[in-house]
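$ run holo --ligand "glyoxylic acid" --emit tokens
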Amino acid sequence: MDSISQNTPSNHVDTARLGDRLMGMAQIGATPNGGVNRQALSAEDAAARLKMMEWAAVYGFSVTTDEIGNLYVRRVGTDPNAAPIMTGSHLDSQPTGGKFDGAYGVVGGFEALAAIHESGIQTKRPIEVVAWTNEEGSRFQPGCAGSAIFSGKDRIEDHLDIKDWDGVTVREALKAIFATAPDMPYRAAGGTVDGYIEAHIEQGPVLEAEAKTIGVVTGIQGATRFVVEIVGEEAHAGTAPLKLRKDALKSACTIVGALEELMADPTDTVRFTVGRFDVMPGSPNTVPGRVQFTIDFRHPDMDTLKRLGTAIQPTCEANARGCHVSVTQIVDNAPVAFADSVMDIIRAESDTLSLPNRDIASGAGHDAWYMTDLCPTGMIFVPCKGGVSHNEAESATPEDLAAGIRVLANSLTLLANR
Ligand code: GLV
Ligand code: MN
Ligand code: MN
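-- output --
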């Protein structure tokens, strides 16, 4: 505690350096509209990892990877037997994603590590910054693959044969990404971890509206995802009478309408999204024979999540209009609460730095969800402009971004000296 008050790591967090590194990272996969498209295990993802390696080399931090491609940057501790404290997030993005979702937690985690290093403090425990593989789940479903495998909730075997929308498997994409850094030392996913804090932009409007710089995240709402497949019958658009058709798209539209009614919520707490819709064969003059769409359904309350979640399949079947419907659930994450011990540290460090803060629940999903199985876990949110995220316009101020990392650096140091 003494060494922390004398040479506080937060004093070494460099706002300009953090901003430069975030903007440098955002150039990898930059889109014409100012956003980022850096799909999991893509060439852009590989380039982002190489950038992390370059930065780590400057400080003498070691870099390793595991069987699912999680990337770990480690600063050693003084006790060789002590379990690490971890921080991090993800470098993959949505197809039309922003500069900060995920990248902030990785690049900011790295800035925290650099600041701790420059403060001269030797922590008892090692501190690791991790870039988790495929958090978004936009290329390979489901997401949070890296943290799910690290936590032991998923097995690597269950992910390797998952295909992206072009038929490329995780196995093939991993092989390609490993080939870009063939000398990177390997470590197995998993192991004992003593604490985890993830920094992230809020992705919602609350902090900005209330002029709070730091969100002390209390937990993550429950999240589920389903894939619905509707099989009808292809037919000639000019000849097949409407009455005889089994039009998979019309069935899908009716189903989505019925689901919309099922999910109607006057309190506006339910989050229900159909974000991907594939129509096959996708020809203007063939009656669609097959449709696949995704359902992302979230709620903070477990009972509601269960009640509405179990009504999805019967609702789909009841509105199939003569087509065959199958519903497969691919994500089933209960609401999770973060550790009081970690929240207390984040709150106290924010107060010490005179940063306005408030407790806040996360509507978005994060790798931290999986870490709660392993160790005391928490998250730090900073405001983002208008609450906009999963959008190329995502934006946050350099000052707020740096403030979050100052809290992170001090909190990690405290945890790593316990
Ligand atoms: C990740 O961004 C999620 O909440 O789905
Ligand atoms: Mn994210
Ligand atoms: Mn995201």
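-- notes --
The pocket of glyoxylic acid (ligand 1) is lined by residues 136, 364-365 (CB under 6 Å).
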